[in-house]
DNA sequence: TCGACTGGCACCTTTGAATGGT
DNA sequence: AACCATTCAAAGGTGCCAGTCG
């Protein structure tokens, strides 16, 4: 299986300066947005394609003297969300037919967001990850074969206001929605429009004829992102029928059930971000490699801490080395007796995203899921949970502070729980 | 005091319904 | 009746900026 980032030259032009993505309370699209093409899928097998964003490091940044510099430790990670491409699940032939667009993926800084947007912290760096999961439906995603792809040039700093004016200019130059801010000689269109207020009809007419081409415009040497007006963007569907059905079944928003839980798609067990504390953007820190992970979601019956994750170094330029820390990933699963479930249920109802009140001074961010695929909200009856509770001071390793969790929790990890979570 | 954030604004694109012509 | 092209308004995506907040 191969994945290629479309318009990587445009991404690189942003990356060279230090990509920034605006995040807003209501959600903001990315620009450039993620667009990938895949090959090597089994044409008649069904796949889910997903995206999530992982912190690049454990730092918060500030823009100072025309450059990014570390401004302290990262804030506690907000609820972790995974964006499922709305075509999912679809046949391999469908995914390989044309590039896969994540145009409508939105980023927000609202930790209480109910619309399924990916929640990020401002002034933190993130790296998008693309997951290809071979699964017939959401119920089997949990333990299906998957591969994860990462493109270093897509990393970015989340901001509420652009810091680097060069980034602002690049965005204005290439994003059609920002056309109104482009310069035209000494005056931009905004100024011209103000003049045309005396004669709005002629101004509108002029715009209608001259600004017709609905494409991403690229100046100089930056490639264009083509726009096909005849293509019905699959993103407009927003959710697959499967997801909608699940939502209807549960009388909840699909996002609330599927994506809201703040769970990582895959076990990022020993991701160690602490070694990458550096200025962003580094002047020459662009890494030309691609990373790719291989794995299998654990069997529901597997309760061991280790699974058969594999990774290998790719020979191609598009798929290069796998970070060493990804080679082994713990997969803790625990079975709880009734008293433990009771304690966990109490914790779920009182402490999600907050602190364990009975452990003052030990702020926690809690995530809980149920292992049984059909258990969903009644999963307590199944008696099997996968859970992670970790300090807000991201990242650990940190001695696990909780009293009722897997022994492997000392190894900092965020467990693979998607999508059965709450 | 200052940096981060928010909401409103003007400008723009996108979308889909309505309309008319072939 | 079906198809296509055009028009139009509404919805929504942009960056900017003044004000607010911590």
Automatic annotation (TrEMBL):
Keywords: DNA-binding, Nucleus, Transcription, Transcription regulation
Compartment(s): Nucleus
Any GO molecular function: DNA-binding transcription factor activity, RNA polymerase II-specific
Ranges where the T-box domain occurs: 5-183
SMART domains listed in its UniProt record: TBOX (SM00425)
Listed Gene3D superfamilies: Transcription factor, T-box
GO annotations of cellular component type: chromatin; nucleus
Subcellular location, principal: nucleus
BP terms from Gene Ontology: cell fate specification; epithelium development; heart morphogenesis; pattern specification process; positive regulation of DNA-templated transcription
InterPro entries hit by this protein: p53-like_TF_DNA-bd_sf (IPR008967), T-box_DNA-bd (IPR046360), T-box_sf (IPR036960), TF_T-box (IPR001699), TF_T-box_CS (IPR018186)
CDD domains according to UniProt: T-box_VegT-like (cd20197)
Name under which the protein is recorded: T-box-containing protein TBX6L
Species: Bagarius yarrelli
Source taxonomy: Eukaryota, Metazoa, Chordata, Craniata, Vertebrata
